[in-house]
Design a protein that fits this description.
Blueprint (H helix, E strand, L loop, with lengths): L7 H4 L5 E4 L4 H10 L4 E5 L5 E6 H11 L8 H4 L1 E2 L3 E3 L4 H11 L3 E6 L2 E7 H24 L5 E5 L4 E4 L1 H7 L3 H4 L12 H8 L3 E9 L2 E12 L2 E9 L2 H29 L11 H14 L5 E4 L6 H12 L5 E5 L8 H6 L17 H4 L4 E5 L6 H13 L1 E2 L8 E2 L3 E6 L3 H6 L5 H7 L2 E4 L10 H16 L5 E2 L1 H9 L5 H15 L4 E2 L6 H21 L4 H19 L4 H8 L3 H11 L6
Parallel strand pairs: 1-2, 5-6, 13-18, 13-19, 14-15, 15-18, 20-21
Antiparallel strand pairs: 2-3, 3-4, 6-7, 8-9, 8-12, 10-11, 11-12, 16-17
Helix pairs in contact: 6-10, 11-12, 18-20, 21-22, 22-23, 23-24
């Protein structure tokens, strides 16, 4: 059974919430929490669907608008227009609609009425079911193989022990599965492969006294990750059949994993960002990808210039590879051999087979020239010649070779200034700068910081085997206030540090690196001082304004606790009470 054979009516959730346009937001919030629901559909007085509100919408509204939620009704924050499907739609259609519209749920309508809801997890759960089904099919297939088969994981624990293994060793699977293999067979070939990760074929082996077999064992690699070892006493034909079955199962599992990633990560292409400024850059990139024109990507270090280059290559549909080159890391004497390649015997130490250069490797694809501003002048002229002629000549060769390469270059330096200083060739600059994309620094696209945090948190959770459920609001506020001189690269490092050092299931303010907190607080202080400095007032009024700011700051840090705030300010509690009354400060704000 495949995804398009599963109908909505078979898996939809018939237990959903509805509210009316004039329903108070506070009541809707309480109902969502009480019923463990993620959304509520909004009806008008004629019982027609008008919109939808999610718990995330309510949280965002409270945080961004800073208004009293008790004064708002459902229609004030509802997302107008509900995307819907019919009962007889299949899950494949639902998945495509969700991806296209970037939504996590669909209303199921029948005769104009909501009869159920399909959520992202319904589709995800089905994929997990198919993964388990594939595993059961694989186990059944292994039991039909005539030889004994044993599979251990990367810890040496037995996970597959087929029926012929039971017969051969007189050892039922109930006793060995889930146990270390070396408890039963200390000299097992599998354990050697577990250490070396190298194939062993047709080896005479005595796994236990009185048992003599010819055995082969091989490591199992899935997505470049070592998963374990499979072994069989075999003739070569049976081993090939087992390998084919494992390969097909691996391909199917990989397909299911890719589909899950599409559902859980709906960011456009390889580029993350919903801010207006980054969406404009994505639009330019998409238009540029349709042509063969050279592209120059500018931006500070860590802004994601190579990510943009990969995205352009991905959507361009080019048949060739994406070849990245760090121009600042190429020694002058190796420039020609690295870029253009060389023939056999071109110089002392040259490979007997010769070597293809970057241009040949990127033929019919994309050559990404990173840090192009660091390329020395003599190398620039050689690069320009290749770009003008669309041809290169290997070292030691007498013939030119035509090339068809898309050039994308990138730098964090001011190339126009380098041209004026005679540090960069003007003709090469104009050759590269047909289409220019300037990637804004992270501090100019603050609305994307939360997206990056979410993306990195999910990725690092998987990478480190953790299950962090979220981030405290104070953490988000601080991270969005920080200037991020290292841009996205610095943000990733900070999130990784917090994930690695987190002992809880929730990231809190105390896990933020101290230098970030100090920088944000210093910037807040300087901001207040700048504002005070611009006022045309006397010294007394300036001092009073700054004192009021410090008191408010201390109250905020102490969460309204007068005693703690007085301790922070290092003044008596009675003095603080007097100043609060004198300045008319609301402690509850």
């Amino acid at each position: 059974m495949v995804l398009k054979e599963i109908l909505v009516k078979d898996v939809m959730d018939k237990n959903f919430l509805i509210a009316y346009e004039d329903s108070p937001i506070s009541e809707i919030k309480e109902e969502l929490i009480r019923d463990y629901k993620k959304e509520v559909f909004i009806y008008d007085k004629a019982d027609k669907v008008q919109g939808i509100i999610t718990m995330k919408d309510i949280c965002n509204f409270v945080r961004e608008k800073e208004s009293n939620i008790n004064q708002k009704c459902a229609i004030d924050i509802a997302t107008k227009g509900v995307i819907s499907v019919s009962e007889d739609s299949d899950l494949l259609i639902c998945r495509n609609i969700m991806l296209k519209n970037n939504v996590g749920r669909l209303a199921v309508l029948k005769e104009g009425k909501i009869v159920g809801v399909i959520r992202q997890e319904h589709i995800r759960d089905f994929y997990y079911m198919k993964v388990e089904e594939t595993s059961e099919i694989l186990k059944t297939a292994i039991n039909y193989i005539h030889e004994a088969v044993c599979v251990i994981n990367n810890k040496g624990i037995v996970i597959v022990w087929n029926e012929n293994a039971e017969k051969l060793y007189n050892l039922p699977k109930e006793k060995i599965i889930g146990r270390p293999l070396d408890e039963f067979f200390p000299n097992a070939i599998n354990m050697k492969v577990l250490k070396t990760r190298k194939v062993i074929e047709n080896c005479y082996h005595e796994p236990r006294d009185g048992t003599h077999i010819v055995i082969s064992a091989a490591p199992i690699i899935l997505n470049n990750e070592f998963m374990g070892v499979v072994s069989t006493d075999k003739d070569v034909t049976e081993m090939k059949q087992l390998s084919d079955k494992l390969k097909k199962a691996t391909e199917k599992v990989n397909f299911l994993k890719e589909e899950l990633e599409k559902i859980s990560n709906r960011e456009k292409g390889l580029v993350i960002g919903k801010s207006k400024v980054i969406q404009q850059k994505i639009e330019i990139a998409e238009l540029a990808a349709k042509s063969s024109a050279p592209i120059l990507i500018l931006g500070e270090s860590g802004t994601g210039k190579e990510v943009f280059a990969k995205y352009i290559h991905k959507i361009s549909g080019l048949e060739g590879e994406f070849i990245p080159v760090n121009c600042s890391a190429i020694p002058r004497e190796l420039f020609e051999s690295e870029f253009f390649g060389y023939e056999e015997g071109a110089f002392t130490g040259a490979s007997r087979k010769g070597k293809a250069g970057y241009f040949e490797l990127a033929n019919n694809g994309t050559l990404f020239l990173d840090e192009i501003g660091d390329l020395p002048m003599d190398m620039q002229s050689k690069l320009l010649r290749a770009l003008q002629d669309n041809a290169i000549r290997r070292l030691g060769s007498e013939r030119d070779k035509e090339i068809n390469v898309r050039i994308i270059s990138a730098t964090n330096r001011d190339l126009e200034e380098l041209v004026q200083r005679k540090k960069f060739r003007m003709d090469l600059y104009y050759r590269l700068n047909v289409i220019k994309i300037e990637i804004p620094p992270l501090r100019e696209r603050k609305e994307d910081i939360v997206l990056f945090i979410k993306f990195f948190l999910e990725k690092l959770n998987r990478e480190y085997g953790k299950d962090l459920t979220g981030i405290d609001t104070d953490v988000i506020n601080i991270l969005t206030s920080y200037k991020w001189k290292g841009n996205v690269r610095e943000l990733r490092n900070v999130v990784e540090q917090m994930v690695v050092l987190c002992r809880k299931d929730f990231i809190t303010k105390d896990m933020i690196p101290e230098y970030i907190i100090h920088d944000v607080e210093r910037n807040e202080d300087m901001s207040v001082l700048d504002k005070l400095d611009k006022k045309e007032t006397g010294l007394r009024e300036l001092l009073d304004s700054y004192e009021k700011y410090l008191i408010n700051k201390a109250l905020k840090e102490s969460k309204g606790n007068i005693a703690k705030a007085a301790n922070i300010l290092k003044i008596p509690r009675s003095t603080l009470h007097y100043k609060i009354d004198n300045y008319g400060i609301n402690v509850n704000d």
